[in-house]
Write a structure and sequence with these properties.
With 143 residues, the protein is an alpha/beta fold. It contains three helices and eight strands, in the order E-E-E-E-H-E-E-E-H-H-E. The chain has one domain: Alpha-Beta Complex (Nucleoside Triphosphate Pyrophosphohydrolase), CATH 3.90.79.10. It has a five-stranded mixed sheet, with helices on both faces. Strands 3-2-7 form a three-stranded antiparallel sheet. Strand 2 and strand 3 form a beta hairpin. The longest helix is centred in the middle third of the chain and has 13 residues. The mean pLDDT is 92.
């Protein structure tokens, strides 16, 4: 048996939209990239609880997870990302050790500020499709 089994990491992200249909982006402190709020699930943590925790840590918002909008695999890093539509139910946007800014972005702004691999997650969630998208990427571009 192979002692070096492949390892995957599972992350969760929340797409929160405002009354104008724009999605919330965070600007990361470490690399200044614009992304969705989210992060890596902890072992033993439920998907929904991890999503709530990560969004709250990065934004200050309390959210209620909705439908799964997509599953994305970064094939070069072995990261599986689960993206959910979310509804903000409380809290307020607050910068922190991980996030330096927030921005409500429409589809054109999302395409300008984010890489293709991140833009597609937001755009998939913003569409009213009921079925979740399943996509592969290399960290920057769709495959």
């Amino acid at each position: 048996m192979n002692s070096q089994l492949p390892r995957h990491s599972v992350s969760v992200s929340g797409v929160i939209t405002d009354e104008d249909g724009r999605a919330l982006l965070i600007q990361r402190r470490d690399n200044h990239h614009w992304e969705l709020p989210g992060g890596v699930l902890e072992l033993g943590e439920s998907i929904e609880d991890g999503l709530r925790r990560e969004v709250r840590e990065e934004t200050g918002l309390v959210v209620e997870p909705g439908s799964l909008s997509g599953v994305y695999k970064n094939v070069s890093r072995g990261v599986i990302a689960l993206v959910f539509r979310c509804r903000a139910t409380g809290g307020q946007l607050t910068t922190n050790d991980e996030v330096i800014a927030f921005r409500w972005a429409d589809e054109d702004t999302i395409r300008q500020l984010t890489t293709e691999a991140y833009a597609v997650r937001l755009l998939d969630a913003m569409r009213s499709a009921t079925a979740a998208s399943i996509r592969h990427h290399d960290g920057t571009h769709l495959l």
